[in-house]
Amino acid sequence: MKSSIQLDHNSMTFKTDYLQLVNLLEEDDEDKWPSLLAEFDEFHLICSMFTFCSISFTPRSLNFRADRLAKGARSRSLSFSHTNTQLPS
């Protein structure tokens, strides 16, 4: 999300295969997860920097390409600070 802000993107939709994360971020009751309060606050702060920001669940089974790229990166112990918004040729 921070990389998208730095790249001057105003409107973003983020997808994740982690349904529990989406559910936690959508919950209004922050008392359930006090250990994650700082992360929730940072998420909401960064979201407020966009004119539109959403996060939604997409199962891995419906996103083969991203899943394959993530598995390949993990097997090579690579870490990415941001992703490019352009499609590869």
Overview of this protein structure:
InterPro entries: RNaseH_domain, RNaseH_sf. One of its GO terms (molecular function) is nucleic acid binding. The chain has a two-stranded parallel ribbon with strand order 1-2. It contains 4 helices and 2 strands. The longest helix is centred in the middle third of the chain and has 12 residues, at 37-48. The protein has one domain. The chain has helices at residues 2-6, 19-26, 37-48, 64-75; strands spanning 11-16, 52-57. It has 89 residues and is an alpha+beta fold. The relative contact order is 0.22. The chain is globular.
Protein topology:
Layout: H1 2-6, E1 11-16, H2 19-26, H3 37-48, E2 52-57, H4 64-75
Parallel strand pairs: 1-2
InterPro entries: RNaseH_domain, RNaseH_sf
Pfam families: RVT_3
GO molecular function: nucleic acid binding; RNA-DNA hybrid ribonuclease activity
Distance between the termini: 24 Å
β-strand percent reads 5-15%
Counting DSSP H or I runs of 4 or more residues, the number of helices is 4
Count of discrete structural domains: 1
What share of the residues lie within helices?
40-55%
Runs in which pLDDT lies below 50 for 5 or more consecutive residues are: none
Strands, count: 2
**What series of H and E elements makes up the topology?**
HEHHEH
Structural class: alpha+beta
Instruction: Report the C-alpha radius of gyration, rounded.
Output: 15 Å
Kindly report the average pLDDT value.
Answer: 81
Shape: globular
**Strand arrangement, major sheet:** 1-2
Largest sheet: 2 strands, parallel
